[in-house]
Every structure is written in C-alpha cells, then in structure tokens.
Amino acid sequence: MTEPEPIASAPMVGLAAVILAATLDEPRVLTVPVAGQGAGRAEGLPAGPLEPAHPTLERGLRAWVERQTGQSLGYVEQLYTFGDRNRRPGGEDGGRHALSVAYLALVREARPAADSAWQSWYRYFPYEDWRAGRPPSLDALAARLEAWAAAAASPEEGRRRLDRIGLTFGAAGSGWNEERVLERYELLFEAGLVPEAGAPDALAGQAMAFDHRRMLATALGRLRGKIKYRPVVFELMPPAFTLGQLQRVVEALSGVLLHKQNFRRLVAQQGLVEETEAVTAETGGRPARLMRFRREVLLERPAPGLRLPSGRAG
Amino acid sequence: MTEPEPIASAPMVGLAAVILAATLDEPRVLTVPVAGQGAGRAEGLPAGPLEPAHPTLERGLRAWVERQTGQSLGYVEQLYTFGDRNRRPGGEDGGRHALSVAYLALVREARPAADSAWQSWYRYFPYEDWRAGRPPSLDALAARLEAWAAAAASPEEGRRRLDRIGLTFGAAGSGWNEERVLERYELLFEAGLVPEAGAPDALAGQAMAFDHRRMLATALGRLRGKIKYRPVVFELMPPAFTLGQLQRVVEALSGVLLHKQNFRRLVAQQGLVEETEAVTAETGGRPARLMRFRREVLLERPAPGLRLPSGRAG
DNA sequence: TCAAAAGTGTTATCCTTACACCCATGT
DNA sequence: ACATGGGTGTAAGGATAACACTTTTGA
C-alpha cells in the first residue's frame, strides 16, 4: 500500500547561492558570467550540480562557490527549492526534472576573484530602491501593469489582477511593503514585463540567466523580513562600526530611509550593540563612537532584530 | 571557467507532505504506515519519489498524497529540502544522495482513507502542549539535558550546551517560545533523547520513520510563526465558525492558552472576520454568533494575522 | 563661520494587557 | 439557581513616532 521511502527517478539537482554583502552604501550580490543562452554572455549566480562527493547539500554549495569565486562563506541558510518553472528542457532529456536548491549567504568582505563580480542588487530590481524617494520607473511600470490588467480575458480576472497590483506595489491600504520582492517580480513576470519573459527593454531591471533573478528576489524578500526579528545584519558588518554605518546598511537592505534618532534608540535599548572605547574620524562631521554586536542579546530576547522605525528623515 | 548550469549527477529525490488539520480541540497530522526499519511497522508521512510524469514538484506531491491517503489538498507551501542527515544509505547506492522536498499542507476536513490515520501532533511532541500548564515530562527532559551538558568534552562546550538549552526550552530571559519546535527537537536529537537517536523510552514523544519527525517539527514551527502575520488559520476552519472555536484552534496550534476578551477584540478590530446572520446552539452556555473569514482583509492590511495576546486565562 | 554628522531629551499617541462585568442558554 | 460559554467596556502601562535641540569635527 505505502511506498517504502521517498526514493527517486533520476532528476538533475543543482545548487545555487545568493551571496550578499554591503560595502559602503550599496547592497551587493556576487555574480558570475554564464555562457549565453542564445545571445552572448549573461550574468548568473554561482551554481553547480550536486555531486556524490559532496557530504551534504550545504558543503557542496560551499565547494562550488569557492571554486567559482574564491569566496568562502560564513552565514548560510537554505532559501527554496526551485523546480517548477523554466526547468524542464522539454524533449532533450526525456522529461527529466531539473531542480535547484537555492541558498542565501551573507558575507563581510567583498574580495572579488576570478571572473566573478559584485553588483548592486538594485541593478536587477531598480524599483525596489526607495532611498531617494519613489523610483521614477515605477510610473511607467504601473501604467504597463494596468494595461495588462485591462487586457484580461474576463472582468473577474481583470479585477483579480488589479487587486494583486495594489497589494504588491502599494496603493492598497498600506502603501509600499518592502518585503514583497518576490511577489512583485512574479507579477511583472506574468505580465510579461521582465526581460526573461521577453520584454523588449529593461524597464524592470537587468536580466539574469535561467531563473536566477527569481532566486535573488526570494533572497531579498527573506532578508528584508529577517532583519526584523533576527540580528542577521551584523553578518554583513565589520567587527566594529558606527551607528551611522549600521543605519545606512539597514537602509540599503530594506530600500527605505529611516528616522535617525529613533533608529539609534531602538538599537541601543534593544541591547543589540555595545560601545567600544574607540572612535573614528570619518567623513565630515563629529567623530563617532565605534560599536560592536552584543552576542549576549541572543540569549536575552526572544526575537532580537531591527523593527524598522518607519519614517523617512535625516 | 563557469559551469553552464546547475545540472546534476543522479540523486534520488523524494516528496513528503505534512498535512495538518484541526478537528475539535485537537491539532492533527495525517500519517501512513511504513514498512518497518528493523522491527515491525512505523508511522510516517505520506511520501513518494518525484517521477518524470509529474509536471511540477507540487503536482507530484498532490498526486502521491491522493494515492496514499485519498485526501485532496488545498493550501500547500514548500517547507524545506532535507538531505543532510539520515539520508545517505552508505555503500548500498554507491554514495548517491537522497533528498526529500517537504511540503506543509492545511486541510479542512479529516476524512481518513485507506491505511492513513489522523493523529494528534502532540503524540510526537508531548512537551509542546502547554494548554494544561507546563507539561510534566519537561522536568525529566530538563534533567537529562542538563546531564548531557555536564557530560560535554570541554567546559566551553558545556556552557554552549547550557545556553542552547536555556534558549530553546525557556528559562533564559523570556521563557517558553512556542515557535522553536525544530530547535528543541534538534537539541533532543543531539542529546540522544529521541527514539530515532536510540533513546530507550519515548519520553520525548512517539518516533516516526526516517527523518519524518524532523519534518513535522519544521512544519509546526513554521505554522506557529505564520499564524501571527498571515491568516492561515482559516484554512483549517469550516466556512462558518464561532469565535470560541477559532480561539480553541489557535490555542491547539500554538500550544498555549489565550486571554479570551483580548483575543476577541484582536480578531474583530483587525477585520479578520465578519458576522453572519446565523447563530449556533452548541455545547452549554449562550448561543454564539457564527462568523466567517473576511477575505478583503488581505487587501487592507500588510500582515493580517493573530498576534497571540499572551496570557493564559479563561 | 558654516555644513555635516553625532548624539540627547521630551511629548503625544496608539496598542497591548489586564481587570471587571453583563448576557443568554441548558440542566 | 447556577454553571457555562458568549459578549462588552474601560483603565493602566509600555512602545512608537515625531519633534526640537546640543555637540564636535573639517573645510
């Protein structure tokens, strides 16, 4: 009656890494060149097949990343297993499945090696960066999305599309929600507005090979959510940093500006950081005290993180 | 330099489903018998290999579940891909990897079919049920965990173990955190206190085949977290229900009792439900108004859910 | 002297928590 | 009458958001 165990046919299993860092005020992702699909070279994520020699999935991932980029990974967590879309090559493989287990990694230093390169992740998602106010490209995107909704087969379908647009791109009830990165990308994909889906221009951002941009979107959404209840930002910070630097990194990740005073108070009274003796001279203005992450906070609070204090202000 | 695409060797890929329901006051999981490892039959989750005929992972999962249990699934989300532990059969397969992509499914009705059976999930995690106060088995477990910490190779390792015990089982700072189901299970596993790891008795709950109990722990933790910011509880409720029923289901999921008045206010003012005209006679006491889920809340609030109003009270 | 960034303090407001209490039905 | 669960109101406390303001450096 019952099968003995989830044993399998012979699918292809790949490993892929979304490796993020935050140097200066820019959030970065590590990319490698990929022999082009059709025309020339494309950008992609470090990736490779799972091999029998790999002791675990995660160890296999680390091996591939070191080999392709020279980067060694610290914090690593599993993101999602992709297998449903753009991953069945049709007849050529006799219908074999192609899965890809994607991981999120956070690193401190950004030493690019071999062919790899660090890119700002807003290169792939320009409309996700609200630090300088509402991105102008959103107006054009919104217009195209509404046209897509209007072109729906039935009125109900049109209404559903409008609801989704409002939900993911704001306008509905509560405005922009920075965590819905993946939902926005999938909506643009369905509407045919991303280059991967055949859009003529790059209004919705730079394309990536295969479904790597979907993986990146998944990673950004996850990270934007996670900084609120886990102190993962510090995986991106040097051992000592100023509160201003910390704030700029959080702003870079979340894509929105924060209220300075409240951010400082929040960080301080949550016990996330402690002072060091050192101060730094720095770019213009009064020297700032250097802080370090307070590891003990993990034992004290149930969900220590940076509940973003909303408002935009200097 | 760069490999063309995450293409693979020949691992075995399985699909597994944690199917949850809430009938009356008990939270349930759907299990199937598994031809025993060693001695007799064990309980397991519905599962089966990914096959070339499956159009997507999720469709493959639905097919396996219907075939093994007769249950058709509504809400389904991917949980995690397990592959690192208990999943390399050693020499027999020449070192092939065995992965398992686990899914969480929520269903309304509990019609058992074939060999499958609904079990209370606290059968597998008795210490997770705090509805009748602190479970007595926790005292014995805590004693064994402390013995495990004391038996560490080095003092630092002993301290680390104590920290983890405090963090996952309470005592540290903030007491019991109902979301850390997986972390608790993994700690018990490492300490050798679960039957799967060879513990002599079932103090830490009933065993399951393979790593299925780990999957169940992952599912419970995810669900306990998710009800706080997504209205997933309603996937478990009938179309019309009383606020009392809703509260009892939430309590069953989270394993803690809630404060009645605040729960009602919360649900009401969040706009999660709306009244129907009907009332129900019910078990003892004044007849209650029947409510239904307000679907529009999805469009209105960024994260509609049931932020548990802490305290235990009638 | 001024710009720029660091850093401190205070107040209004909202949400959470807790407590007290009334209502309608079955036994 | 009373037990049981349904249902409403309100006051105290804490966290958030917004505001105003001082300090210390470099140009």
Automatic annotation (TrEMBL), chains A, B:
SUPFAM superfamilies: Nudix, Winged helix' DNA-binding domain. Residues 233-293 form the NrtR DNA-binding winged helix domain. InterPro entries: NMN_biosyn (IPR011213), NUDIX_hydrolase-like_dom_sf (IPR015797), WH-like_DNA-bd_sf (IPR036388), WH_DNA-bd_sf (IPR036390), WHD_NrtR (IPR054105). This is Membrane protein. It comes from Methylobacterium tarhaniae.
